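Example record used in the benchmark description.
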Amino acid sequence: MPNAPSKFWTRVVLVTLSSLITAAVSHAACAPPRSAPGGNTIWVEDLVVPANTTTATITARLSTSAAVAGGQNDLSLPATLRIHSNSNGRPDCAVNPTIDKSGSSFLFRPNDCVGDACTSMRALVFATDNLEPIADGAVLYTCNIDVTGGGEFVVTGVVLGDPDGRRIAGAAGRDGTVCIDDAPPPTPIPTASATAPNTPTNTSTRTQTPSPSTTATATPSATPSATHTPTLTRTPTTTPTPTQTATTTNTATATATATASATETPTQASLCAGDCNRDLEVTIDELILAVNIALDNAGVVQCPAADHDGNHEVTIDELVSAVGRALDGC
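Model output (structure tokens):
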């Protein structure tokens, strides 16, 4: 028969290995933060926070191989991760001061939402007095958030513009995750305190086991199932009687109408300040182009919508109006 002390220590080793494996799996719940993506991308850093964390700060960065003077993106707001509101109702976000983009703005969406009705946040990162490119890997902005659980900030609506106000092709976003590190501490390795038997006694005990007796069991005969006989029911069919409808024919009398001179009616697109391509949306490249026109680096003909009053120049009030349309929509 197997040696009793050997079986005892085998059980101790198995329990220890099981505890270590359980601890390792628990601590692997949060993946390590990912490295920066390539391309022209606005991305949110992955974040791992300790259990019972109620507040945290997320960071949005730029990865680029192009000259980017400004960028914009939307962030979804999951129910477990909410961006703080400032006293003015705006998102508690701040542009990175080292990139010198003082015209940056942040706004909850949809427009005029309050509290949990706000499902996303729009960020505009640019300046009216600085068109220098933003460095690859630079922090664009940070936001303070309330944490009630893990989740993901989905990055959409990414637009990047170069110093001349041209849109950079292939701009994209990468989502950022917030993971709660709620894994328990590793289970301590148990100390074998049980005492194995000092002197095993090999005692053979012969036990007779009576052979089981076979008992015949009567098998009940199968009872035939009742047979259901379907009953045919005749359903009377009603035949609709056609109804004749009299048709009256009216004869219109032609009336001569004087043709007035054509007058152009302004459209919603032409009334949207800063919407250079008239697609009912103002994006960061159009804002940068409007800034260039205001600085006499470009002509009004390149974006007539930026010159809202039609005086052949773009002034600060028109820039502010264009920024408002970029935030609120046309």
